[in-house]
Amino acid sequence: MEKSENMHEKAPRILLVDDEEKNIKLLKALCEGMGCETFTAKNGIEAIEKTEAQMPDIVLMDVMMPEMNGFEATRRLKSSELTRHIPIIIVTALDSREDRLKGISNGADDFLTKPIDSEELALRVRNNLKIKEYHDFLKDHARILEDQVAARTRELKSAFEKLDKAHRKITFGYIEAIYRLSLASEYKDEDTGAHIRRVSHYTGTLAEQIGLDKEFRDSIFYAAPMHDIGKVGIPDNILLKPSKLTAEEWVVMKTHTVIGAKILMGSESPYLKMAEEIALSHHERWDGKGYPGALTGEAIPLTGRLMNIADQYDALRSQRPYKPALDHQAVVKIITQGDGRTMPEHFDPEVLNAFKRSAERFKEIYETHKDDMPASTWEIQKG
Ligand code: C2E
Ligand code: SIN
Ligand code: SIN
Ligand code: SIN
Ligand code: FE
User: Fold this and answer.
1) What is the C-alpha to C-alpha distance for residues 280 and 230, in angstroms, rounded to an integer?
2) Is 62 helix (H, G, I), strand (E, B) or coil?
3) How far apart are CA 41 and CA 36, in angstroms?
4) Does residue 241 have its Cβ closer than 6 Å to ligand 1?
5) pLDDT digits (tens, 9 = 90+) for 303-341
6) Is the CB of residue 290 below 6 angstroms from any atom belonging to ligand 2?
7) 212-222: per-residue pLDDT in tens?
């Protein structure tokens, strides 16, 4: 048994099941002589109870016993998930073929014939212990593997979470940088930088009104502030002129669209791609009288059509070097009924309807985001 003892931390434990005291004595002597520990049961019922309670490494099972015979006890132990892996060696008085077949059909693992031969007993016990050890090893191994897989899964999950956090940090840093850049261009001709934050909300609101998905709404929320970034390329004497522009000045002024698109061009970022599109198209008009492309209707990107109305609402509400601020009602009237310079046919009818439906929200956005705020509060508020 040296080999088995090496593999086992403790001596193998054998349950001896027999109703006759002298048989028990003999088996006990032989098993303990091999270095095994033993405990005993007098019938099938006791055999089941003790097996379940003490989980032996092997059961030596007599056949003919009162209460419950060895075949029935074997059948029950082999049909239980808890005990089916424990080898059962049937000990039969007769070396009968019939008994063996019955034993096999009930799930017995091996047979031992009475009278007991000590070498045969040692051989059977050793073989069945090996099988049991191998089974236990595989079972442990499977459990260890499962634990390792679970641990690796946790590690991966935490790595993904960290990556996601880092990604969001970078995205935020990037958006903040864009925001500050947009702010720099806006500070020239605007009283505060609040306009570029408000346009996020206006365009987001319009996008929601016409049923665009969250991805689009989020993108336009971040892209919209960059619509006038091209104004950095317009000389101050034009941009800050407190009166109407001359025809020559107006030609220059209109280039803020293409300058903006050039600044934003060629990025992989979906926000910058959308921002480029908005910078270029936010002064196009539905009726084809806008600039720089004089595009008509749906040839104008939807983002530009949304931005156009949002931009006008906000510019009209705000004070500019060349104009005073107007109140909400006056601005809604200009956009929905026209004032000559602005006319309803400039707008995509669907977008104009969305504006009419959400005019109160525009008012609220203008009033809530009147004052300037540090860039760091910007993303946090968007959440
Ligand atoms: P902005 O001041 O940000 O105005 C954006 C848009 O809001 C304008 O695009 C226009 O569609 C609308 N808007 C602004 N003020 C008024 C207004 O008093 N009445 C009406 N009906 N609409 C108004 P637009 O016209 O393409 O102008 C683009 C940019 O050109 C303006 O941006 C502003 O920076 C500049 N700009 C336009 N007109 C003048 C002007 O008379 N003097 C000066 N100094 N700059 C002007
Ligand atoms: C958004 O979609 O984030 C704009 C919502 C709003 O400010 O009304
Ligand atoms: C203006 O009315 O001041 C020029 C704006 C335009 O016609 O696009
Ligand atoms: C603002 O505070 O003006 C707008 C900030 C935001 O909600 O993004
Ligand atoms: Fe503009």
Assistant:
1) 9
2) strand
3) 16
4) yes
5) 999 999 999 999 999 988 889 999 999 999 999 999 999
6) no
7) 999 999 999 98
